[in-house]
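Bumping my old thread because nobody answered last time. Still need a sequence for this structure:
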């Protein structure tokens, strides 16, 4: 079986690849990594560049030739920090920004992509590979996990076509808060249909029908488009992830601050459980044309989560509430290109404050054949307890 995973180096992608490998260690996996975004102009904003004051140690760089504003582009715009060499031999590997593989705990180094694979013209002779050992989500791995990893633009039909070529299954989940999320999803569906892909697994969101959240509306449109296709599809709808809570950061600060009233109980699911289910529906028959809610019954308030972290770690952790305006302050300062992101984040937060994003665990319990992971299990895993 040949599987395409969109976004293989992100937090969800790491767990997904590990779950697929655990089902079949020899499965062929291709990843489609997105080129960095260029919003409203060709300057890329990288993680860590949203600071609104202080001294930046280096300028954000744009690759030569990427400021064309019309005509036909033969390939997606790529903006990478420090990688502005346009020919000759590269002496070091291109690095992906730190913070893309965090599943809890502290990362000691950034993820590196193997050198020599980012030729900027002509025919690519081989796929970009992720270096072995960089997709580990915790614990000891006994063998290297290599995947074939293409870098492309999810909005570019040529890149989508290249990515799905020869694939049996496509696993797609869109970048969060992207204003063109629907177009990315429907485009991948079109590419999969044209390539004769057998199965399409789409990761949507719990309670996607809550139309006040822009991201939900985008995902619901993709679900509808998928239902109109001739593909054998499965939709997974997870609630908010436990991994959104940074246990190490809370311990370092001695406090857990979340953008909800302290008494608001929030539902969370472990990404590892989502990944296990995703692998199950990918390899097993009987899940075609089905949509599954991926949720736990557990719902905890900020104070309860802080108390749980304190109990497991043996260190005091206070709890507090972040002002909602603080959530989007950095985005608003980044410019008008981030207006949608700021609005989407505010609306999602408002919905979560009202509803708690809670769900029913019956479906997840059936799919896993066990109880879903508890928040305490996640905290213990983060702390190695």
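Sorry it took so long. Here it is:
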């Amino acid at each position: 079986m040949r599987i395409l995973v969109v976004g293989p180096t992100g937090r969800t992608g790491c767990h997904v690849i590990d779950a697929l490998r655990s089902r079949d260690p020899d499965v062929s996996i291709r990843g489609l990594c997105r080129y960095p975004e260029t919003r409203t102009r060709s300057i890329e904003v990288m993680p860590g560049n949203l600071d609104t004051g202080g001294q930046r140690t280096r300028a954000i760089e744009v690759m030569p030739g990427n400021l064309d504003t019309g005509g036909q582009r033969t390939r997606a715009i790529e903006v990478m920090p420090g990688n502005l060499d346009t020919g000759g031999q590269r002496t070091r590997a291109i690095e992906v920004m730190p913070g893309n593989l965090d599943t809890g705990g502290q990362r000691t180094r950034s993820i590196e992509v193997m050198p020599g694979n980012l030729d900027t013209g002509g025919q690519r002779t081989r796929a970009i590979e992720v270096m072995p050992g960089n997709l580990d989500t915790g614990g000891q791995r006994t063998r290297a996990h290599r995947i074939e990893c293409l870098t492309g633009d999810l909005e570019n039909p040529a890149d989508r076509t290249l990515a799905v070529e020869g694939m049996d299954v496509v696993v797609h989940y869109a970048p969060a808060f992207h204003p063109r999320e629907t177009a990315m999803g429907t485009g991948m569906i079109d590419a999969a249909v044209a390539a004769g892909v057998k199965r399409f697994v789409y990761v949507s969101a719990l309670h996607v029908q809550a139309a006040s959240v822009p991201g939900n509306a985008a995902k619901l449109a993709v679900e509808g488009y998928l239902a109109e296709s001739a593909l054998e599809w499965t939709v997974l709808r997870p609630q908010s992830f436990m991994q959104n809570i940074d246990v190490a950061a809370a311990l370092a600060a001695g406090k857990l601050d979340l953008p909800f009233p302290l008494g608001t109980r929030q539902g969370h699911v472990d990404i590892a459980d989502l990944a296990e289910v995703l692998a199950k529906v990918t390899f097993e028959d009987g899940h075609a044309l089905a949509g599954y809610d991926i949720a736990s019954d557990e719902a905890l308030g900020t104070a309860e989560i802080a108390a749980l972290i304190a109990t497991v770690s043996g260190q005091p952790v206070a709890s507090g509430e972040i002002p909602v305006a603080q959530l989007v302050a950095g985005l608003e300062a980044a410019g008008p290109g981030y207006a949608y992101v700021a609005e989407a984040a505010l609306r999602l937060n408002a919905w979560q404050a009202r509803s708690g994003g809670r769900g029913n665990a019956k479906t997840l319990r059936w799919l896993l054949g066990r109880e879903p992971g508890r928040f305490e299990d996640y905290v213990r895993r983060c702390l190695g307890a």
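Residues 168 and 197 are 5 Å apart (CA to CA). Let me know if any region looks off to you.
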